[in-house]
Design brief:
By secondary structure, the chain is an alpha/beta fold. The chain has helices at 2-10, 14-26, 46-58, 78-89, 123-126, 142-146, and strands at 39-42, 95-96, 112-117, 133-139. α2 (14-26) crosses α3.
Length: 147
């Protein structure tokens, strides 16, 4: 019922959802077949979710995985880097957490959050990303979320 759905949204544990997403998206620099690619957030929680996610993503440290404190390593190779770079070039949406340039050379790519709003007509929505990129979309009701 609609009331049940609304109670579930109001009672959502945003901190827990963000923590789960950090594992689901950024583990192995997002290079896993089961990594999250389309992050759908109810419109009433979108601002809070994005704010908390951005704070966590900014704490990620890119570098050599053998160095203590590193949380995001490189992409698997230059071809993977070029593929991700081309995919990102198709989006003009606001990007959070992205430095103007990567402090490390390719195939390192900085973790980022892309605010896609309701725009599901972009390649990011229809493609496995295989990188540390979290596109966030919002929806208002169940029908909108599963269309």
């Amino acid at each position: 019922s609609k009331q049940w759905y609304q109670r579930r949204v109001r009672g959502a544990d945003v901190d827990r959802a963000v923590g789960g997403l950090m594992l689901a998206k950024f583990r192995n620099a997002g290079q896993a077949c089961n990594a999250a690619n389309r992050i759908l957030v109810h419109s009433s929680l979108y601002a809070e979710f994005v704010e908390k996610l951005e704070r966590k993503v900014r704490k990620l440290r890119m570098g050599d995985g053998a160095v203590p404190g590193t949380t995001v390593g490189p992409l698997v190779n230059e071809r993977a880097y070029q593929r991700l770079d081309s995919l990102l070039a198709t989006s003009s949406h606001e990007t959070l957490c992205q430095p103007s340039s990567s402090p490390l050379p390719a195939p390192f790519t900085p973790p980022r959050v892309i605010l896609c709003g309701e725009d599901t007509d972009i390649p990011l929505f229809h493609t496995e990303i295989f990188g540390p990129v979290a596109p966030i979309y919002f929806f208002s009701d169940e029908k909108e979320a599963v269309r």
